[in-house]
Specification:
alpha/beta, nine-stranded mixed beta sheet, 277 residues, Rossmann fold, 9 strands
Length: 277
């Protein structure tokens, strides 16, 4: 079992495939296994590194607090452990904030950025509106079946859920997320707090030289399309798109769409780099 021991914790990670390197960073309360639909396909052509953020899954957090900057340093340490000078960096939700910080701290090590269902400002991600509070509360109260259903409603659009058997979908998604959807890992509160304290929006102009893809999901109740549009506007030259008929779990719902978008993005970024260089 590959583990990277740090001064204040341990990171579980997996390296899969051969080819140009891709670092996959997950979001709040989610293990690295949620990238399975992407890594399973793209590892045929790329070397993929997926991992559990500190404090979740098989990774351990022994630090007194948690920050996006700290998790970005974790990601860079994993690149070092893999022997990578640089990589394509993909982040989903909170993972998008971590990916942005990786690029700000070590721009020469980022071949491209793929920012999915994410934000320019951490407080946007952890906002406490009535709708968001109710959405989160429903994942914590009621029967276990009710909590699973509430979690599915955060991940997938209503039209998609109407075509699915909820119990079967929850049983399929749970192992990818890394837990029973009725449970909430304790680290989530620390992750949400870390996001509320992080705002590097004013620095994102420094990322103009990094090929960047920003993608929002049309019906995402967490990472609103306006947040994705605002993020892309702050990174000059980035490509922005909205994926129709999708929500926060688009990487699981529409893996073929996401995989093709990212494959094209990686190949184009590497091709442009060779042309410049």
């Amino acid at each position: 079992m590959p583990l990277l021991k740090l001064a204040d914790g341990t990171l579980y990670y997996e390296l899969t495939g051969q080819g140009p390197p891709v670092l996959w960073i997950q979001g709040t309360g989610v293990c690295g296994s949620a990238w399975e639909p992407q890594i399973k396909e793209l590892s045929h052509d790329f070397q993929c590194l997926g991992f559990d953020n500190r404090g979740i899954g098989r990774s351990v957090d022994n630090g007194p607090s948690l920050s996006i900057e700290q998790m970005a340093r974790d990601a860079i340490a994993l690149m070092d452990a893999a022997g990578w000078e640089s990589a394509h960096v993909v982040g989903h939700s909170m993972g998008g904030l971590i990916a942005q910080q990786v690029a700000l701290e070590a721009p020469s090590r980022v071949r491209s950025l793929g920012l999915l269902c994410t934000f320019a400002k951490g407080p946007e991600a952890a906002r406490l509106t009535g709708k968001v509070l109710l959405m989160g509360l429903r994942t914590r109260i009621g029967t276990r079946a009710m909590k699973r259903q509430a979690f599915l409603e955060m991940l997938f659009p209503a039209e998609y859920l109407q075509s699915q058997n909820s119990a079967e979908l929850a049983a399929r998604v749970g192992p990818m997320i890394g837990r029973d959807l009725a449970d909430s890992p304790p680290i989530m509160m620390k992750q949400l707090s870390a996001m509320r304290k992080y705002d590097a929006a004013g620095k994102l102009g420094h990322l103009a030289s990094i090929p960047t893809l920003v993608a929002s999901a049309q019906s995402d109740p967490i990472a609103l399309t306006s947040y994705g549009e605002g993020l892309a506007a702050r990174i000059q030259g980035s490509r922005y798109l909205v994926i129709p008929n999708s929500s926060h779990g688009v990487t699981i719902q529409l893996p073929e769409v996401i995989n093709e978008l990212l494959r094209t993005h990686f190949v184009q970024a590497d091709s442009d780099s060779r042309s410049r260089g």
